[in-house]
Amino acid sequence: MPTLICGSVAYDTIMVFPDRFDRHILPHKVHMLSVSFLVPEMRREFGGCAGNIAYNLKMLGGEPIVMAAVGQDFTPYAARFDQLGIRRDCVKQFDQYFTPQCYITTDLDDNQINAFHPGAMSYAHENSFAAVRPELHYAIVGPDGLDGMLNNCRELAKAGVPYIFDPGQGTPLFSGEQLIECISASTAVAMNDYEAELVHQKTGKTLSELAKMTKVLVVTLGGDGSNIYVDGKELRIPSAPPKAIVDPTGCGDAYRAGLLFGMEKGWTWDVTGRLASLLGAVKIASKGGQNHHFDRASLSAEYRAAFGTDLPAW
Predict the structure, then answer these.
(1) DSSP three-state, residue 233
(2) So what's the pLDDT on residue 22?
């Protein structure tokens, strides 16, 4: 059955500065900063949390439906979705705005200077999944406009659709009360350790208390794996060894696709967490959020090599 992927669809423009920022930024002049970096290397990638999650879930054999607010420049991304067979029934286009854009400049030490333009994402709350509601099996509410995330959590809860709440980069936008509302209505919550600390500061709730507010709480720890809190227990999920460490962009989104697929298949959280971990490791070996590839056979072989057990048949 289809899974609704709510969140951002964006273009990522990635530029590489072949030097180090700290050689060009004078600490005693940061109050009047005026710098220009020559970036001979540049690439444009398809990105955004919803786009990245859908890309991975489709490769797993799932049926994602993307729900996002996009702008006048969406045409190339629409063609990509169509080529991949990713449904865009719930993509709403606002022609007076641009699709969200992220401009990333990286130096030789992997420091980054980012600029994000939300564009049409600020109007995500004007979108709806009513047309596909009868089809939905699961959903995820990922980073988006604040009002859009709140609306999606409330509408999914009202419709009885189990969903993962993934506030991601949008976590600072929420009040403590809003976070508690969205977590309490969710089936699962997925955050990295930094976001978990922000949620703790905003809500005053410990991880143990947050875990009691939802069925499953997932906290990712980068290269140190992840912890899954379920049924009063803490499952320690190891990281899968990557073939190469190239670009972390989109690793969290790949992980979340693994969570959704495991939930859909009814697999144990131990297996689901390991699949999610493996997808993150596969992704980190490629540049961008949507340039890695896998199939069922290669994924099963890598799972066996990483964890010494077999994935369930699907």
Answers:
(1) strand
(2) 86
Q: Does position 112 have pLDDT exceeding 90, yes or no? A: no
**What does the alpha-carbon distance between residue 124 and residue 176 come to, in Å, rounded to a whole number?**
21
Q: Which two tokens stand for residue 31?
A: 């109050």
Q: What is the CATH number of the domain that holds 66?
A: 3.40.1190.20
Residue 25 confidence class, pLDDT cut points 50, 70, 90: confident
For 48, left (φ over 0), alpha (ψ -120 to 50), or beta?
Answer: left
Share of the chain above pLDDT 70, in %: 99
Question: What's the total number of domains in the chain?
Answer: 1
CA dist., res. 156 & res. 177, Å (int): 18
3-state secondary structure (DSSP) of residue 120:
helix
Strand order of the β-sheet with 112-117 is 41-47, 10-16, 101-106, 112-117
Residues 192 and 227: beta-carbon distance below 8 Å: no
Residue 270, Cβ neighbours under 10 Å: how many? 16
Find all residues with CB under 8 Å of 253, minimum gap 6, and list them. 49, 52, 53, 56, 142, 283, 289
- For 266: left if phi > 0, alpha if psi spans -120 to 50, otherwise beta; the answer is left
Is residue 29 in some structural domain? no
Sorted by sequence, the CB contacts under 8 Å of residue 133 that are 6+ apart come out as 159, 161
Does residue 26 form part of some domain? Answer: no
pTM higher than 0.85, yes or no?
A: yes
Q: Is residue 274 part of a domain?
A: yes
The conformation of residue 213, written as its DSSP 8-state character, comes to T
For 73-103, give the DSSP string: T-HHHHHHHHHHT-EEEEEEEETTSPPPEEE
